[in-house]
Specification:
heterodimer, A: 128 residues, alpha+beta, OB fold (Dihydrolipoamide Acetyltransferase, E2P), 3-stranded antiparallel β-sheet, 9 strands, 20% helix, 35% strand, B: 367 residues, Gyrase A, domain 2, Alpha-Beta Plaits, Elongation Factor Tu (Ef-tu), domain 3, 8 helices, 34% strand
């Protein structure tokens, strides 16, 4: 699996893409493969404040569940409606159409302490 | 008569008194249905149902190296659990086939609680005890527990009437120990139906009072006592494997589409070498869902054909009461084990058209 170069990654298997102050957050290919067939995605409402390292939702599969942690501080400005009716998109395209939330990132947000694509890839390989 | 040798749960008398139809299930005399399979199935999808699953086995592993033993005998990564978390996992033979599929619960660093299939419990115990080169003890604990599954969108409201434990705070695949309907209980947010709900373990002497209390508390919500028939159609719709059908001694977790419960990075475990060899050689067959395209139901053991040639076999098949389709699982060569393949299932010497589809067949819409 290749991981997009323009994303940054957490050790909890989230990815984040920052454009201006808008951060798009999802879970990685590795995360969905650890869960199996995803059947339910629990996301926060628009307007919710998320905080670094705090759980903002969960992803549930046929026989497992995983919390999702925010890689940045900010306010939720959009959630991915597609996932309510088609949670399986998270298995099919976790780095693309199946993003989870968009956040207006807090001022001074810095992603430099998160993993690069190459760093995450070796981390994920050691975990599976 | 076989019946004299069948094992019974503490609720046998309750089931008979309620007019349940009883069957032999893996050596246990169990209720297959009460009011009717479809009625019970729909109660679980729309309100709530309660199942006596006291035939399930329990094995307890305790001691300083309990986690190491569980990691050695199972495929998933038990020592990564936090106390109060549960994990779907498998026991394998050295050759990589399933001894059983199980739920591992971490009670504490030195205490793990395993829920295993009724018909497999003795061999599971022998396998785990026989592999115990660690500083811990393995107890065959099935006689200590009766178990109920309270499942459905109303399950949490009903259960909350019977316990002080804050159930909304228990997430999926988590559990707590508390008092339930006056009984000391382990309350887990797990299930085998694809709905929200709980599995509740109590000492057998509390089984009858707990069962009665659940039905009483659930009556205003439309709860129904449910049998193994509805349990099977519910698990099939929600894409869950059943031992002896989708999984067994002759198939591996990779073939059964359960790669996600295999964690080689944790270190050695029983079956690891065989699984590694299987991956190196490449899989030949894999489990996939199907829907019938013509009249008929492809059932367990029926042959599957592709382009007129024998290709595999059906592991489970049933009408789906929720989707009004006839669905099932089958094994097919890897190249065909993808959605959209046209197949034929041989039903009583007739070839009946079916098509492979992605699973689960059913996903619930709300928590």
């Amino acid at each position: 699996m290749t991981y997009p170069e323009n994303y940054r990654y957490t050790k909890e298997h989230e990815w984040i893409r920052l454009e201006g102050d808008t951060a798009t957050i999802g879970i990685t290919f590795h995360a969905q493969s650890e869960l199996g067939d995803i059947v339910y995605v629990d996301l926060p409402k628009v307007g919710t404040q998320v905080a670094v390292g705090k759980s903002f939702g969960s992803v549930e599969s046929v026989k497992a569940v995983s919390d999702i942690y925010a890689p940045v501080d900010g306010e939720v400005i959009e959630t991915n409606d597609v996932l309510a009716s088609a949670p399986e998109k998270l298995n099919e395209d976790p780095h693309g159409v199946a993003w989870l939330i968009k956040v207006k990132a807090a001022k001074g947000t810095d992603l430099s302490n998160l993993l690069s694509a190459a760093e995450y890839q070796s981390y994920a390989e050691a975990e599976s | 008569m076989q019946a004299a040798t069948l094992k019974r749960t503490p609720l046998y008398g309750r089931h008979c008194a309620a007019g349940a139809k009883m069957v032999d299930f893996g050596g246990w005399e169990m209720p297959v249905q009460y009011s009717g399979l479809i009625d019970e199935h729909k109660a679980v999808r729309h309100a709530a149902g309660v199942f006596d699953v006291s035939h399930m086995g329990e094995i307890e592993v305790r001691g300083p190296e309990a986690g190491n033993l569980v990691d050695f005998v199972t495929t998933n990564w038990a020592t990564r659990l936090k106390a109060g978390q549960a994990q779907y996992s498998a026991l394998l033979y050295d050759h990589g086939g399933f001894v059983d599929d199980i739920l591992v619960h971490k009670v504490a660093d030195d205490s793990f609680f395993l829920c295993v299939n009724a018909a497999n419990q003795e061999k599971d115990f022998e396998q785990i005890r026989g592999s115990n080169k660690f500083n811990c003890e393995v107890e065959f604990a099935s006689a200590k527990y009766a178990q109920f599954a309270l499942q459905g969108p109303k399950a949490i409201e009903i259960a909350q009437l019977l316990t002080d434990a804050a159930l909304a705070g228990i997430k999926y695949y988590r559990f707590t120990d508390g008092v339930f309907a006056g009984a000391p209980a382990r309350i887990t947010r797990t299930g085998y139906t694809g709905e929200d709900g709980f599995e509740i373990y109590v000492p057998p002497e509390f089984a009858a009072q707990t069962w009665d209390a659940i039905l009483e508390a659930g009556r205003p919500f439309g709860i129904k006592p449910c049998g193994l028939g509805a349990r099977n159609t519910l698990r099939l719709e929600s894409g869950m494997a059943l031992y002896g059908h989708e999984i067994g001694a002759s198939v591996s977790p990779f073939e059964a589409d359960l790669a996600w419960i295999v964690k080689p990075a944790k270190g050695d475990f029983i079956g690891a070498a065989a699984l590694r060899r299987q991956l190196e050689k490449g899989l030949t067959r894999k489990l996939i869902g199907f829907e019938m395209r013509e009249r008929g139901i492809g059932r367990d053991g029926y042959e599957v054909f592709a382009e007129g040639q024998p290709a595999g076999w059906v592991t489970s098949g049933s009408p789906s009461p929720t989707l009004n389709k006839n669905v099932g699982f089958c094994y097919l060569p890897v190249a065909r084990a993808v959605p959209g393949e046209k197949i034929e299932i041989r039903i009583r010497n007739q070839s009946v058209a079916a098509e492979t589809v992605a699973t689960p067949f059913y996903k619930r819409k709300i928590r």
